[in-house]
TrEMBL record:
Domain of life: Bacteria
Modification sites for N6-(pyridoxal phosphate)lysine: 192
Family according to the record: Belongs to the DegT/DnrJ/EryC1 family.
UniProt-recorded name of the protein: dTDP-4-amino-4,6-dideoxygalactose transaminase
Keywords, in A-Z order: Pyridoxal phosphate
GO molecular function terms noted in the UniProt entry: pyridoxal phosphate binding; transaminase activity
Species of origin: Jannaschia helgolandensis
Length: 371
């Protein structure tokens, strides 16, 4: 009997991009190491310019990570203690942390069960006299319905901050995510669709006042050197990371297209299997940051894939409201119950621009056999 030994398929091959672009990434790192400019400087400024252009935004301000980016964007939009922020019940916990860290009120709302992003009707129903900002999350790389959310914000006098940590390269109505709302928060954590070799983040905006305020807040709240006019923080995009991100950014469009091809293979091979598959609504181009299927027996499917040497992820296993940091947030039961159901059933399949197409087909084969 001959056993065919099959390569294992990781959920995500983080080093693949650094292999593909090794000479250019390593040259960028050396250039910064030899420059003597280790905080701010031209590498950061150039990446900020490139990133703003990619996003179709007038301004980009680098910062230390995605959590800071969301927090800074909320602060620059005037959110403070007691202010309400409408946010999806189902998201990565950092979105909620940013609100709570400002002493603001988390106002969780249900997501659209098909797209898994904020449901504008649910958002409208949750607005109360404390609400100041609507904070949609382009989760898994699916764009939130920005047209309807912006109309809602306009009608109610609210600001819109977007958590775009999973939406590099996502487009909504032929426009990249990056300047629909008042401020858009980005993370360049290594596993993101545009990822650094460490932490990084940014906020994009068309509003020069918001850009200036965020720049000041990232620098101790100081306008000029050594004059802090408000209580800021220290949150910087590292020039080493900026130099690497500038190299990778040139490949982002190609990489997102490769992700879409993998998503297309999954969609084709897994249709009619009983799995709930992600969809692409007209007028949207998801970046496919994650390819998330849903099934009542998610754990059994993950185990079968693991037996075949295939890695998967769960985004996310514990709803925000059940985590210790947010215990006590019990408003909007319906949204929280929905978050429970989502957490129990989601399964993220291997996805990335460097995942071979034949590997995606094998993932689908193993899943079909398991179903
Ligand atoms: C990754 C992520 C963040 C936080 O980014 P960090 O850089 O890890 O701080 C925030 N929101 C969402 C939706 C994310 O996926």
């Amino acid at each position: 009997m001959t056993a065919t030994l099959k390569r294992s398929i990781p959920f995500l091959d983080l080093a693949a991009a650094s292999r593909e672009l090794a000479p250019r990434i390593e040259a960028a790192l050396l250039r910064v190491a030899r420059s003597g400019q280790y905080i701010g400087g031209p590498e950061v400024a150039m990446f900020e310019t490139d990133w703003a252009a990619y996003c179709g935004a007038k301004h980009a301000v680098g910062c230390g990570n995605g959590l800071d980016a969301v927090t800074l964007a909320l602060r620059a939009c005037g959110v403070g203690p007691g202010d309400g922020v409408i946010v999806p019940a189902h998201t990565f916990v950092a979105t909620w942390h940013a609100i709570a860290a400002l002493g603001a009120r988390v106002q969780p709302v249900a997501v659209d069960p098909v797209t898994m992003v904020m449901d504008p009707k649910a958002a409208a129903a949750a607005i109360d006299s404390t609400t100041r900002v609507i904070l949609p999350v382009h989760l898994y790389g699916q764009p939130a319905p920005m047209d309807r959310l912006l109309a809602l914000a306009r009608d109610t006098g609210l600001k819109v901050v977007e958590d775009a940590a999973q939406a590099h390269g996502t487009r909504f109505r032929d426009r990249p995510i990056g300047a629909h709302g008042d401020a858009v928060a980005w993370s360049f954590y290594p596993a993101k669709t545009l990822g650094a070799l460490g932490d990084g983040g940014a906020v994009t905006t068309d509003d020069p006042k918001i850009a200036d305020r965020i720049r000041r807040l990232t620098n101790y709240g100081a306008t000029a050197k050594y004059d802090a006019v408000e209580l800021g923080i220290n949150s910087r995009l590292d020039p080493l990371q900026a130099a690497v991100l500038a190299v990778k950014l040139r490949h982002l469009t190609t990489w997102v297209a490769r992700r879409a091809r993998i998503a297309g293979i999954y969609a084709e091979e897994l249709a009619g299997t009983g799995l709930v598959l992600p969809v692409t609504l007209p007028g949207t181009d998801p970046s496919w940051h994650l390819y998330v299927v849903r099934h009542a027996h998610r754990d059994r499917l993950a185990a079968r894939l693991a037996d075949a040497g295939i890695g998967t992820g769960i985004h996310y296993p514990i709803p925000c409201y059940r985590q210790g940091a947010h215990r006590g947030i019990g408003i909007n039961r319906q949204a929280l119950t929905q978050a429970d159901r989502i957490s129990e059933t989601v399964l993220s399949l291997p996805m990335g621009p460097h995942l071979p197409e034949e590997d995606a087909r094998r993932v689908a084969d193993v899943l079909r056999a398991a179903l």
